[in-house]
Each structure stands twice: as structure tokens, then as C-alpha cells.
Design brief:
The structure is a homodimer. By secondary structure, chain A is an alpha+beta fold. The first copy, chain A, has 2 domains: 286 residues, 3-Layer(aba) Sandwich (Aminopeptidase), CATH 3.40.630; 114 residues, 2-Layer Sandwich (Alpha-Beta Plaits). In chain A, 35% of the residues lie in helices and 22% in strands. Chain A has 12 helices and 16 strands. At the A-B interface, β8, α8, β9, β10 and β11 of A face β8, α8, β9, β10 and β11 of B.
Chain lengths: 411, 411
């Protein structure tokens, strides 16, 4: 088994070529889903996959599947992949590694003439980041039936442009049905997006599960007024109320052990004029914890804090739960395949838990799934400074390749 | 003197006609400077002024002057006016009253065949609100030489569009020189934008002066990171730091007696994605107080609070003073002219202080200046609900007309 290795330089070069589309001045990526840059990235993936002999299909929500045929053409495929879209100020590896590792596996198998029983599908999921259309894992959600295709296509961005229209515009409104076929198993390789592997000096994480997560939208409503004339005691300043709520929400994390992670990442002010007392502030809360009960308790504490502050300041507050995912445990056979591949290849491996959401979590609804983590520099992600080492990309890809081959039955 | 009165219905109707351009669903106005709606409002003012026999001139920063000739064509004009632009969510009277009262005075003088020695200029100043190009009183600042024409034309909005280009686009890049001619005196009528006149049951305020004001731009810089993976204790969350600063800045107001007014009206988050820890937050502070020294002390307290919080949270903060205006006292002869006109007309009047900035404050740099305030409903302004009574508009206009005629020397 340990004879077969990926090509580290080729894998790295693919990342650098893909990083051209949506590159930011500080060396990061700003490639929002279904933009012109996303189209260019998709086109390059399709071109590379076709050149590698894959059959490429695109489904009705823009998910791209590149298939390396197996001997048994009727067998359910072993699937691997991730996404090519990024945060507005993100990095060159988050998601992209998962797609390009899959491609590198196909190229390596071609090079060595390796055959397998079941087909291997490399997938690029549509809009994993959720930075543009309001919710993440759009493509895999539709694939596993968690959101209907119709609803998916209607989701729209801040300018009112829908996923359906944007898919058509960039040429990725595919003709294949969304989901509805058997998948043998799904593996996703991803940078850890946290500091643990790097701190421990270990090359690969076998991901056991993912934490629970709940998102909220908080709308604070006061009264607009002139900044120069309305006395302080008569004000209903939505910005000041929101500021106190954000401080309180953040502090809730420290009331639980281990701390949940709580983030107010998005905020907008109405009318957002420097000489008008804000009449309305809307902000999001992202909260996550490995334990469902603890996360629910933290949610109740945050809601209580916001309502208390609104009452003290004469403001109205409404808090909407916009997303929720229970904690997830990955399939034990898949996790074991990752551990076994690492051992066989002599690559250091530890069990780890995912802090972030991933398409692989959706895939647990339809097939045995697992993930491979690799270290990223200083644990930094969702940031232009996100970075990873070529040798870690290659080591993770090797582990992924052997786990996939074990499921696909190498001939 | 008391024979001459404005036409209350005509004045009110002019406001309602002008309120069509940029009307908002809740009955307010969103007519940012140099937009298509601002052009329509300007066109209507030019049309009405021309129909009333005025000679209309437009200067190089788009200020519009409609002149009713005096017997002495060489005399410096008595000037009155205000602005037609509004806040993003503003009202139908802020600024607009000052322009339409001037027009109503011309119409009334025409109707009664009244002549005067000096010319009377009705002015519409460009971009008083400052909601689009970053600073207020743009037209009057250029007129009095506080900002060069060149610098003024270069000022740009969030989309990078400059005042110079936008003036050309809407046809108001005029050929007249900016300022540089003598003005006998300047009067501006305006809604109070505060609750005092209404609470006292008085129809007109003779404005003695305006409070000092200082604006700041605060930039809080932390580090972006993944909302799901970076432990709370390792975060440098610019949003959380900014929230604490806003709370502290607001609380500073209550350490001084009487309280300054302090407002955080504008805020933006970078990258503003719900699942990314914010790396940067930029917000404005607007602070005002009648006493220069007290305002300076409040400013030092706010800066200290922001720097202390940044230090505690491992964040960088930079605080830039973006605007400053000392407290202003209006010309005593002008204030007295307002008081005298009220007495002669039997209209109730009290001395009052302005909480807001106005073009009249700029005009104190070049000529004797004064203001007339009228009540507005519940003191609400910079708000779609801003409202005023037809009889108060007319009473204020009558006082303004007689103060202007006293300076222009009625024949």
C-alpha cells in the first residue's frame, strides 16, 4: 500500500494556479460563490478533471462531479471533495484543498495505472461558505435533501440576485438531478482551521465528529433622532443597546466549561449616518459547542441578556434562530480507514474534533462519512493570512487516497 | 410692518410638492446630495424661482442663488436659504423649509409689489447633510473658503463617485465663482430639531448661537479568524472590542453636567461575515456641547476609554479627529432683528441655542448671520417621522421676511 504517493509539487502548483481567481492584495482569497471568479475556478477544475480522463456532470444546484470509472460501472461511488468558494477575505486552502486533493488522487492513480472496483467521484459542492446567500453548505444541503432544489434556487444575495439566476449566468445550472443516487461513502480533507495539530506537531487528524452549532439574527429597534439635538436621557439608541448586547453575548461563553465559541460576525446599522442616532441595528450570533445541551443553555443565556438590556434601554429586540445543527459523530469505519491509512504510510495521526461546519457533516445523512484534517499555520483561517505547508497537503492527500482506495477496493 | 404676511397654504403646498422626490414609505425623505432625486428637487426650485422673476446663478460647487433685484443693483445682497438634500431616512422639513421660506418671501413681495434697496438672494446650499460624501455643509464651507473648491470637488462617496463628477452628471456644475462677493447678512430658518419650543408652547426661537462639535473616526483592528474553531481566549475580536468602546463612549456623556450629546451613528465591520471573527470595525463618534472646554474634556475621556479597552483586549485602535467646530455666537444685530420682527408681528418668541450644525454657522465667517427656529413635532428630526405644523412654518416665514426686509431696507 505504501508504494503509492501523491505528487507534492503538482498538488501545490494546482493550489497556486487556482488561487489566481479572486486573489486579494494580502495573499488571500475573496471568491464568493457564483461570482465571475467562482466560474473561472470551476472552469479550471472541469478542464483539469476532463484532461485527467474523468466524466464530468453538473447537477441542478451547480454541484460538479468528476468520476474516475471503476471496474463495476453500476457500483455506488466512493466520493471525495469539498468546495472552491471562499469567504470575502479568506484563504487559499479552505475548501480548495478538498477539491484539489481529489484531483491529485485521480492524477496519481492514472500515473500508476491503478484500478479499483467502485467509481471514485471528486465533487465540488456549491457555496459551502454561505457568505453570499445567507446560509452555508448550500450544494450538499440540496444533495442530501435537507433543502429542496426549488428553495435552494430561490435563495438570494443582498442585491436580490438568486442562486438560480446566478447559476444560469455563469453556466453552471446543470441538467443532472440533485442527489437521488447511492453513495458508498464520503471523505473530505480540510485544513483544521484551528491550532491543535500544529501545536501537537502531528500531520493528520482523524476527525471523530463535529460540534453542534446554532445561528441567531438579533434585531434591535429604537428611534432615530438628530445627533446634535436630542438629549441623552430621551434617546432610544439602537447602536448603544446593540453594543451592550454584543458585550453580554460574548461574555456568556465564559460561563460554561469548556467555553462555547460565540461570534458576532455580521452587523448593520440603519440608517448608518454619522449624525443620526441609529434607529435599528441587526446583528448575527454564531454559537458552537460539542455538546447539544450546553449549547442550548448558552443560547438561553444570550437571549435573556439581550432581552434584559433591551428592557433597560427602552428598546425592542427580536431574536430569530436562523440555523441549527446538532453535534455529529462520523462513521466509525471511515474514521478507522483514516487511522489505518496513516499508520500504514507512517504519517503521524491523532483523533480530533471539528469546530467548523463542513459538507461531510451533511453527507452523514446519506452515507458513511469521514474527514481528514491537516495543520494550518497558527490555526488561522477565514483570513487572508491562512497558510499551510506543501508537505502537509501531500501527507493528508496520501492518507485520503489510501482511505478512498480501501473503500473503492483497489484491484 | 405687520400688514405683510406669507401665504400659509402656498408655503405648505410647496413643501408637499418638493417632498415627492425621494419620498420614503413611512412619509419621510431619502434624498442624498447630488442623486437623481436631488437633481429633481433642484430643478423644481430653479423653475419656481425663475417663474417668480428671480435671476438664477449656480456656482462651481453647485450652490444655487435666486436673486430678487433691489433698487441698488450694486449693493451686497441680504441672503437667506438652507438646503434641499436630506438624511438617508430624514424628513420633509429639515433644510427644505429654509429654501422654500425664501421662495415664499419672494412670492409674497411680488404679490404685494414690495421693493427694497438691497438685492435678496435665496440660496440652496449643496450637501448640507454630509450623509454621502463624508462631511456636512459642503456648499457653504466652500463658499466661505473653509475648504477649497478643488478639494470639495474631489470628495467622494462610498462607491468612489466624486462631488465634481456627480455635479456634472446632474447638470449643476455651475460657471459662477464660489464665494468672493460681499454679503450684507445671512438668515436661515430651520426646524428646531429638538423639543424645547414645542414644550414651551412658543412659535419662534431667536437663535443666539450653536454648540461646539467634534467628530471622530475610530478604527479598531484585531485578527480575523474562523468562528467555529478559534478558542475564545485566543481571539482578537474587533467587534467585541468596538462594542465595549461604544458602551464606554456613550457613558462618558453622563460624567459631565450638562451632558454633552454623544452619538455613534455609523459603523462598518470587516469582513462582515456571520462565520468570521471580525478583523476590523470602524465607527464614528459625533460629540457636541455648548462649551468648548467641556467638549474637549469629554473627547479626552472617550479617547482614553477606547485606548484602555483596546489594551485590555489585545486590539489596536486609532482615533482620528475628522471634524471640529468651536461654539458659535450669532451676530447680535441679526438676533435682535428676529426678536423685533416677532414682537411687531405678535408672534411668541424665545431665545434658544442650536444643537445642530447649520450653513448659517459657516456664514458667520463672512457676514453678520442669524437664525429663526420653529417647533417640530416631539422634537423628532433626522427621522422619517419628522413633522411640523403649517401655521408654524408660516409664522417663522413671516418673522424671517421682516428680519430680511429690515436688513434689505424696505422702500
Amino acid at each position: 500500500m505504501s508504494d503509492l504517493r501523491s505528487n507534492q509539487q503538482r498538488l501545490w502548483d494546482a493550489h497556486m494556479e487556482m488561487a489566481v481567481f479572486g486573489a486579494t492584495p494580502k495573499g488571500g482569497m475573496g471568491r464568493l460563490a457564483l461570482t465571475d471568479d467562482d466560474k473561472k475556478a470551476r472552469d479550471l477544475f472541469v478542464q483539469w478533471s476532463t484532461e485527467a480522463g474523468c466524466e464530468v456532470r453538473v447537477d441542478g444546484v451547480g454541484n460538479i462531479f468528476a468520476r474516475r470509472a471503476g471496474r463495476d460501472t453500476n457500483a455506488a461511488p466512493v466520493m471525495t471533495g469539498s468546495h472552491l468558494d471562499t469567504q470575502p477575505l479568506g484563504g487559499r486552502f479552505d475548501g480548495i484543498l478538498g477539491v484539489l486533493s481529489g484531483l491529485e488522487i485521480v492524477r496519481t492513480l492514472n500515473e500508476h495505472g491503478v484500478e479499483h472496483e467502485k467509481p471514485i467521484d471528486v465533487v465540488c459542492w456549491t457555496d459551502e461558505e454561505g457568505s453570499r446567500f445567507g446560509a452555508g453548505c448550500v450544494g450538499s444541503n440540496a444533495f442530501v435533501g435537507r433543502r429542496s432544489v426549488e428553495e435552494t434556487l430561490k435563495m438570494s444575495d443582498a442585491d436580490g440576485k438568486s442562486i438560480g439566476d446566478e447559476l444560469k449566468r455563469i453556466g453552471y445550472a446543470g441538467s443532472e438531478p440533485v442527489g437521488g443516487f447511492d453513495v458508498d461513502s464520503f471523505f473530505e480533507i480540510h485544513i483544521e482551521q484551528g491550532p491543535i495539530l500544529e501545536n501537537e506537531g502531528i500531520q493528520v487528524g482523524a476527525v471523530e465528529g463535529a460540534q453542534a452549532s446554532t445561528g441567531y439574527m438579533v434585531t434591535v429597534t429604537g428611534e432615530e433622532g438628530h445627533a446634535g439635538t436630542l438629549p441623552m436621557v430621551l434617546r432610544k439608541d439602537a447602536m448603544h443597546g446593540a453594543a451592550r448586547m454584543i458585550d453580554a453575548v460574548d461574555n456568556v461563553a465564559f460561563d460554561f466549561d469548556p467555553h462555547p465559541v460565540i461570534t458576532v460576525g455580521h452587523l448593520r446599522v440603519r440608517p448608518n449616518s454619522r449624525n443620526t442616532i441609529p434607529g435599528q441595528v441587526i446583528f448575527t450570533i454564531d454559537s458552537r459547542h460539542p455538546d447539544d445541551e450546553t449549547l442550548a443553555a448558552a443560547g438561553r443565556a444570550m437571549i435573556n441578556a439581550c432581552e434584559r438590556i433591551a428592557g433597560e434601554r427602552g428598546l425592542d429586540v427580536s431574536i430569530e434562530k436562523t440555523s441549527h445543527r446538532d453535534a455529529v459523530t462520523f462513521n466509525n469505519d471511515c474514521v478507522e480507514a483514516v487511522r489505518a491509512a496513516s499508520t500504514a504510510l507512517g504519517i503521524t495521526c491523532m483523533d480530533i474534533y471539528s469546530g467548523a461546519g463542513h459538507d461531510a457533516i451533511n453527507m452523514t445523512h446519506v452515507c458513511p462519512s469521514g474527514m481528514v484534517f491537516i495543520p494550518c499555520e497558527d490555526g488561522i483561517s477565514h483570513n487572508e493570512l491562512e497558510n499551510a505547508r506543501p508537505e502537509d497537503l501531500a501527507a493528508g492527500t496520501d492518507v485520503l487516497m489510501h482511505a478512498v482506495l480501501q473503500r473503492a477496493v483497489r484491484l
